[in-house]
Amino acid sequence: MKIFSAKQLSEADKATTEKHNITSLDLMEHAGTQVFKWLHQRLQNAKVPIHIFCGIGNNGGDGLVVGRLLLEKDYNVHIYIANFTDKRSKCFLKNYDRIKEVTNNWPKLMTSEKDFPEINNQDIIIDALFGIGLNRPPEGWLKPLIQHINASKAFTLAIDIPSGLYANQALEDIDAVVKANHTLTFQAPKLSFFLPETGKFVPFFDIIDIGLDPEYLHKTESLAQLIGKQQAQQFYKPRQAFDHKGTYGHSLIIAGSYGKIGAAVLSAKAAFKIGVGLVTVFVPECGYDIIQMAVPEAMAITDKEDDLITDIDFDIEPSAIGVGMGIGKKAKTVSALEKLFKNAKAPMVIDADALNCISENKNLLKVLPKHAILTPHPGELKRLIGEWTDDYDKLEKAKTFSKKHEVVLLIKGAHTVVIFNESLYINTTGNPGMATAGSGDALTGAITGLLSQGYDPLLAAVFGVYLHGTAGSIASQTMGYEAVMATDIIENIGNAYMSLFEQPEQSEKGEPKK
Is residue 264 part of a domain? Predict the structure, then answer.
């Protein structure tokens, strides 16, 4: 699914009205009707007070459409207009006139804080103050209005985007944003929904198709791609009856140091669970017995040193290499990495201490393998690309790094972002329970396993992140977030594959169960 900028969505509106011979007013009516249907289906004429706060632009016009349709169904509706300027959109004015035709209780014009209504926490608020066209923080009494809405603790539904939030730029004032419980966003989600600093204002959202021109949406290059189940299904490579273990590749996992051999174990197990045919683990000598007992399916090669990796020497031809988990940052290990980067022919996933070695030894950037997949956690990312001022600055710095070094770069988080050059792929799976030791080691093993099976680096990263997140979600469903461990994520990778093609349960009426 594509994620578009505010400018692109505005252009899509224009293209739709011109190509399909409909007016902006018709488009607004359709959008508002879709919001009304969503509400009506859930409220079923409940008499709870509904407070609709409208701006004087097109988002406010959407709110007026919703209010009129609710009034026609005899809901207990109160409409307020934030009358902060004389400039009004034509569609807003048209719908302002229309709402006068269905009620004698005209919308209340607010001009200052003294006009704010009393709201109980059992009421419902519909936020239609500002849409994606907002280009500066709400000022004057508008900021206290937003704070009044937030302080009410009433269930708040935002139309298209919570007021005060931008679609695709950094926030300037976090205290001037509506804290929506749910957002009904038009046509496509917005980039701000998935970033740490702004996503907290959109804990839940549904996408409403308002009928924008499909050709424009298809041909327009988006800001990012959202990766869900539908996309992941297309990534999957089915297996054939006469395939064998050699068909599915050979992963080399280079990991561990004294006290950290568990990182190698987790990565190796994840590579197997993701479907690789063979795994060889390269560890210090102290890890030999551990690997042989903990992962009997794997083969083991050891460094000449007992406690750390100093010379990565192997006589196998791996299909892919995963390196860095728990290896430390000793000078001998850095030298071993440099040798590996220069000589390795297989595609590579670089993680953890290998990334820290790169950050502290910039000469390694000169020999960084092209199209390698780098999987830093936030601290490692900061050491790699430098400090950032906000989430959008972070994305730009990450894109610059990816382009300069020709690598795939991950930004891990609630919605992990996979970056290659200018392209962003945002993951939709996972949960807070995955913030646990070893989760990253499992991800590296999984991506390495996919690389070994012939997935290209970008696809391996995107698909690996999706399956890893799905496995974590499945694990949390049976044990809760707090109890999830990295081994639980690994054990559920098979279930993650199976879930790709599961059909939703059907009710007796033949409808999907919710």
Answer: yes
Unique residue bearing structure tokens 């991950």: 410
CA distance 251 to 348: 10
Residue 48, SS3 per DSSP: coil
In angstroms, what is the C-alpha Rg of the chain?
A: 27
CA distance linking residue 142 with residue 492, whole number of Å: 48
Same domain, yes or no: 49 and 164: yes
Residue with tokens 């197990």: 269
DSSP 441-466: HHHHHHHHHHHHTT--HHHHHHHHHH
Helix (H) or strand (E) segment spanning residue 107 = none
CA atoms 141, 147, 151, 153: torsion sign: positive
Reduced to 3 states (helix: H, G, I; strand: E, B; else coil), residue 363 is: helix
266/194 same-domain check: no
What residues form DSSP beta bridges with 320?
Answer: 251
Residues 408 and 464 placed together within one structural domain of the fold = yes
- The one-letter amino acid code at 479 reads M
CB count within 10 Å of CB 100 equals 13
End-to-end CA distance of the chain: 22
How far apart (Å, rounded) are the C-alpha atoms in residues 110 and 129?
A: 12
User: What is 261-326 written as a DSSP string?
Assistant: HHHHHHHHHHHHHHT-SEEEEEE-GGGHHHHHHH-TTSEEEE-SSSSS-------S--SEEEE-TT
Q: How far apart are CA 418 and CA 437, in angstroms?
A: 21
Query: Would residue 512 count as lying in a domain?
Result: no
pTM above 0.85, yes or no: yes
Distance CA 269, CA 273 (A): 6
Which tens digit of pLDDT belongs to each residue from 310-368? 999 999 999 999 999 999 999 999 999 999 999 999 999 999 999 999 999 999 999 99
Range of the domain at 431: 232-499
Contacts 24+ apart (CB under 8 A), 238-246: 244/277, 245/277, 245/278, 246/277, 246/278
Which H/E stretch holds residue 83? none
- pLDDT of 190-208, one tens digit each? 999 999 999 999 999 999 9
Same-domain check for residues 154 and 263: no
3-state secondary structure of 495: helix
Instruction: Report the domain count for the chain.
Output: 2
Strand order in the sheet with 155-159: 108-110, 77-82, 50-54, 124-128, 155-159, 182-186, 205-208
